[in-house]
Design a protein that fits this description.
Layout (H helix, E strand, L loop, with lengths): L13 E3 L2 E4 L3 H12 L4 E4 L16 E2 L8 H11 L6 H21 L14 E2 L9 E2 L6 H16 L2 E3 L2 E8 L5 E8 L7 E6 L2 E4 L10 E2 L8 H8 L4 E2 L4 E8 L7 E2 L5 H5 L3 E3 L19 H15 L4 E4 L4 H8 L1 H9 L9 E10 L2 E3 L11 E3 L4 E2 L11 H24 L8 H7 L19 H11 L6 H17 L7 H22 L17 H4 L3 E5 L5 E5 L20
Parallel strand pairs: 1-10, 2-3, 2-11, 3-7, 11-20, 12-15, 19-21
Antiparallel strand pairs: 4-6, 5-6, 8-9, 9-10, 13-19, 13-22, 14-18, 16-17, 17-18, 22-23
């Protein structure tokens, strides 16, 4: 365990809890609700407000075998195909079998999904990679907003303590290396000011993605990889970070567009929209049996190939045949976003191009959400549970957040029951005394990059590690990231400097893994290695951060490509 810390002031205040959940998307809020329901003193830490996470931007919906004729086995098969040989089959089995009841519990919590006027049953649609209609949606294309509303309301009703506008900094550990809480900085609008701590023997990281590491992304501004960076500094293993899914149909706003871009949901294609080039030719027909509804990596590659062939930087999504009424009723959010940018999809094709969307990899966990650091859990996009493999199946992310958050809460409750036998090693007093003020063995804190380095990181990653990658582009990106760190004097502690430093760290890990994986698989596309190589690369790449801030990579052996169960560092294979 490295115990590396960000450069920050020591905590000046503290909250005591049994569980601290970092993040307020579907995974974080579900974990908090379930932990509180078992009697755990639970605190939620969120970077903005409870409903400002990535979940509320989810347009398409949540996938589960809820429809007539559909089965968990069919959902499993579609997930495994999309994952391109790297899914943990047991994790997928848990997802698809526990998923339907998890969705029903979400409905019982207050989430309202769209229903058929004729039958009153949940109205299901279809998205890329799915052979059945199994996507439940709300408000047409506002599913995430509805789920966030329902879960945030339940959290308020349950009276769970929350700390808003707080950026998590580092994991706190005791002398034995066990989790003892987190340090955090409240950005002036929460309950506390400055750097503080939440002391707890269980920490759940549900911090979402890292899309802001690229210039153009569908992710909100808060998605700066904070949870993954924290876990790396704490000594946890990160897996499969090279598998970043680029959503194929993001509203194209020009070559200089930066930050969060409007998403054109996969559900639009699920309802019959099709991709065309400037000449009106449907170029996905014949490339895959599902054409525009192929898995996202295939559609993104199809778009990029056509762009290369024609020397352009975007294609078009044509849904003019929907008509004004269907656009207004089924996709009101997307319709409004397009019109805001001067495009009317009722009368004209929508310009689209791929943009960074979802990290299939993340903090490596077992089937209970446990990481390789005792007491540290991860779920949602920040985690690598093994469900997504090399490419996430559309709309599986919300379901994964639900299912594995519930499994984490159950494990924490079981652990708490065991601790109640009289073991005092995790008492609040012991935890607080043994939290080290600096890193392991007195290591100095990690130097911070200045905020002005952030757009440079994004440009390096977009140019060298985007949809199209090669040994040359990745090696250049790695060198430029190293040079960037060396070129700046250490910055003063602050939110923007901490975020930039987190982005730089996850960028280094992503590039390191992408450079080593010399094949094309799922959403990892190497131009110099265009084929999938199961003999050599049907395995996971695992990265850890060393005390000197260097990276170590290893792979699972040929027969162990699913993530191994890793409840304790003591039983884990070392690099």
């Amino acid at each position: 365990m490295t115990g590396i810390r960000l450069h920050a002031l020591d905590p000046s205040w503290a909250i005591e809890a049994d569980v601290v959940v970092v993040g307020s998307g579907v995974a974080g809020l579900t974990a908090a609700l379930r932990c509180a329901a078992t009697g755990q003193r639970t605190v939620i830490v969120t970077k903005a407000h409870l409903d400002d996470g990535s979940t509320r931007w989810a347009q398409g919906g949540i996938a589960a075998a809820l429809g007539e004729g559909d089965t968990p086995e069919q959902h499993r098969d579609d997930t495994l195909v999309a994952g391109a040989g790297l899914c943990d089959e047991e994790a997928v089995r848990l997802l698809v079998t526990e998923g339907p009841d998890a969705v029903r519990r979400l409905i019982a919590t207050g989430a309202v999904f769209d229903t058929s006027a004729a039958t009153g049953q949940i109205e299901l649609t279809r998205e890329g990679g799915h052979h059945r209609r199994r996507i439940a949606h709300a408000g047409g294309d506002a599913t995430g907003a509805e789920i966030s509303r329902a879960l945030a309301g339940a959290v308020h009703e349950a009276g769970i303590e929350t700390v808003d506008h707080a950026l998590v900094l580092d994991l706190l550990t005791d002398a034995d290396g066990h989790t003892a809480g987190i340090s955090l900085h409240v950005m002036g609008e929460g309950q506390h000011d400055g750097v503080g701590a939440v002391h707890a023997p269980a920490v759940v990281l549900a911090t979402g993605g890292m899309g802001q590491v690229f210039s153009a992304t569908t992710n909100p501004a808060v998605s700066t990889g904070d949870g993954v960076a924290l876990a790396l500094r704490a000594g946890a293993e990160v897996s499969d970070l090279e598998f970043v899914q680029f959503h194929p149909t993001v509203l194209y706003l020009g070559p200089d567009a930066q930050g969060q871009q409007p998403l054109i949901s996969e559900a639009v294609r699920g309802e019959g929209a099709y991709l065309i080039d400037a000449d009106g030719t449907r170029f996905m027909v014949g490339q895959h049996e599902l054409a525009e509804l192929a898995p996202r990596d295939i559609v993104a590659k199809g778009i990029m190939r056509r762009c290369q062939e024609q020397g352009v930087d975007h294609m078009y999504l044509d849904a003019r045949h929907f008509g004004a009424r269907m656009w207004a009723e089924r996709f009101p959010t997307i319709l409004a976003a397009c019109r805001t940018h001067g495009i009317d999809p009722v009368t004209a094709p929508i310009p689209v191009a791929p943009a960074a969307h979802y990290a299939s990899g993340g903090i490596r966990t077992d089937l209970h959400g446990r990481t390789t650091v005792p007491g540290l859990y991860a779920c949602g996009e920040a985690a690598c549970t093994g469900v997504h493999g090399a490419n996430r199946l559309a709309s599986n992310s919300l379901l994964e957040g639900l299912v594995f958050a519930e499994r984490i809460a159950a494990d924490i409750a079981d652990t708490a029951d065991t601790a109640d036998t009289g073991d005092t090693a995790t008492s609040p007093e012991r935890r607080v005394r043994e939290v080290p003020a600096t890193g392991a063995a007195g290591e100095p804190p990690m130097e911070l990059l200045p905020p002005e380095a952030r757009p440079t990181v994004q440009r390096i990653m977009t140019r060298g590690a985007g949809v199209l990658r090669s040994a040359e582009s990745l090696a250049t990106a790695a060198a430029e990231l190293d040079e960037l760190a060396a070129a700046h004097k250490p910055a003063e502690p602050g939110v923007e400097a901490w975020e930039t430093t987190n982005l730089h760290l996850v960028a280094r890990v992503l590039v390191t893994a992408a450079l080593r994986r010399a094949e094309t698989r799922g959403c990892h596309w190497r131009e110099d290695f265009p084929d999938r190589d199961d003999e050599v690369w049907r395995r996971h790449l695992i990265v850890t951060l060393n005390t000197a801030s260097t990276l170590t990579t290893r792979t699972t052996d040929a027969t162990g490509f699913p993530p191994v169960v890793c409840p304790s560092p003591a039983t884990e294979e070392k690099p």
